Predict the structure.
Amino acid sequence: MAENFLTRSHAERYPHFAQFLKELFEDRLCSNNFGTKSMNEERNQVFQEYQKTINSYEAIKLVYDCIWDIIADSNVEDDESLKTLETAFVSSELAESMKIVKGDKPNTEDALRVFGVNFKQEKVDDDVTLWTQAQLKNQLIEKGIVLLNEMGHDVQGNNQELLKAKLNQLPSLISSKLKAAENLKKTMEENDQALKEQYTKYTTTLLESLQIMENLLQKHMIEIQNEQNVSQSESLEVQCDALYLKIKSLHLEILCETYTKETVPALKKISKELEAKSEQTENEIRASRLRLNRYESVGHDFNCIVNEYGKLRETIKQKKWTLEKLQSYSVN
């Protein structure tokens, strides 16, 4: 959303333009609305004429609406005057709507014909005019009483003179109310502008504060993390040293419990037996290796002879079993 005022952040972003505006207003080269004196006078004159036109239009419209209210009122006692007023008012409205052009001296006997219906423009005599003025006066008094009640002035029970005095003061009261409302609107706009400026200022300050806080936190976290890492490494080093000493102590305890005065002779005897068995086992291994080397030196033919020998022994065994079976059968 675009902002319609120059904020502090804009002035800081565009310092040359801000300085130009400052010099422009200090030297009074132009007014607050950037217009010359003649232009401002012309503008004020046009505005005053415009206000007069609006006031005149509102007054005519008020009378116009009141006349229609009188015509539409079913409680009016003088039916003849009401009918005459209605005919004259409706015919004039139709003439204005149809834009019928008349001469300088219109003929009052001419009738207005619209959609096949003749509307004669009747002349409003003095009695009807006075009656209409009285009805308008009553309508305006009623509207004035309603306005006074809405503005907080109690007029119930007042006599005619006091009511008339209050009604005469009604324009000044309304004018003061409008002026107060305009001043209030202007004050609210100024407050809104100041609030937006303060909001922009506070937002900028808050963002700067958050940036500073972020930098401080990063610096603090880096320092704290470094200190924590150093402390943790020192703690792990101490734990490793303690574990090494504990293992070494446990090793020494095992040695002390194993090699006592009572167990050393037995351990020596066991050691000698183990050494003897170890030497015997090594001798057997060497003998086995020698036999293996001799077998390997014979070559592939020795393996074939061994296989044939095994087969012959198996054949002889089967023959013996067959012979034994035959002998047993012959005996039976």
User: Anything to note?
Assistant: The beta strands are 111-114, 117-120. The longest strand covers residues 111-114. The CA atoms of residues 268 and 274 lie 10 Å apart. Residues 100-106 have pLDDT under 50 and may be disordered.
